[in-house]
Amino acid sequence: xxxxxxxxxxxxxxxxxxxxVARREEEACDxxxxxxxxxxxxxxxxxxxxxxxxxxxxxLRLNGFTCLADYCDYLRRPGCExxxxxxxxxxxxxxxxxxREQDHFQFLVDQALPALLGRSRKKFHLWSAACATGExxxxxxxxxxxxxxxxxxxxxxxxxxxxxxxxxxxxxxxVYAEDRLTGIPDHWLRKHFQKxxxxxxxxxxxxxxxxxxxxxxxxxxLGAYDLQERFEAILCRNVMxxxxxxxxQQLVTNLNRFLITSGYLLIGHSESLNGLPVPFRCLRPSxxxxx
Length: 291
Ligand SMILES: C[S@@+](CC[C@H](N)C(=O)[O-])C[C@H]1O[C@@H](n2cnc3c(N)ncnc32)[C@H](O)[C@@H]1O
What we know:
- The protein has helices at residues 18-40, 49-62, 68-76, 81-91, 103-117, 135-147, 165-173, 186-192, 208-211, 245-256, and strands at residues 123-129, 155-162, 175-177, 193-195, 203-206, 214-218, 231-236, 259-267, 280-284, 287-290.
- It is of the alpha/beta class.
- It folds into 2 domains: 7-91, Chemotaxis Receptor Methyltransferase Cher, domain 1; 103-290, Rossmann fold (3-Layer(aba) Sandwich), CATH 3.40.50.
- The protein has a 7-stranded mixed sheet, with helices on one face. Strands 3-5-4 form a 3-stranded antiparallel sheet.
- The model is unreliable at 1-15 (pLDDT under 50).
- The site of S-adenosylmethionine (SAM) has 24 residues, from loops.
């Protein structure tokens, strides 16, 4: 790819010289931090310079830049929306795991759903907001499949959303390396995963029967989004931790619109809505119910 360099635009052909490079790189990091905050409300605090450089290294190379400052000049130009999406993808942390904080899944199948559905209703919708690479919605599907089998007339669906298109791509592909599957009981491995062979050796794919129950979609939880469905429960876990209190309140107030009356909101174990004026009753830490 053609090397891009906009130094001349700034009227300073040697702007990446040793004399200015440190200051420009620092300003570039500040720009990236502000950009990520504006787009995702994730705060990359000071000390994240190394992370920014490491995660954006590939983007710089792909676009023909050798220094972060020049890359940022490029991002500031009109028409760079697609590249900015890649920056957000690279820097929003997608860490997740199968069966993470699994007491939430157990609570949903054993207590929340029976209380909401009563004796006759067999159809329901759940939302994994900020689903990252899919482990969360698929884990939920393992539990639902056991307690609410489709073969017995149950009809459930999971909407799984994230801001990161890269994470969503992986989630939709549903292919996971063997070492990501530790902790999943053997009977679920056999029931829900296909073992790869040849080029896919060492990888496993979620079977289509469960994949079909999950719909992936890009949603920025802080943007102006709308959804058709209303949900019995929403999992919004380990994303709010990156946001300030005002942003957390905005996010949760938005989620509330999509919950049915008495629906449940589950947040990460290390997160809390304490002290926020939100329309939820706290059942116990990280478990909330719409009032
Ligand atoms: C640490 S992962 C949590 C994944 C999963 N919920 C869990 O608990 O394991 C956080 C996810 O939040 C997503 N995220 C960050 N900001 C977001 C926003 N404004 N809207 C939607 N998703 C966002 C990130 O892309 C990332 O995939």
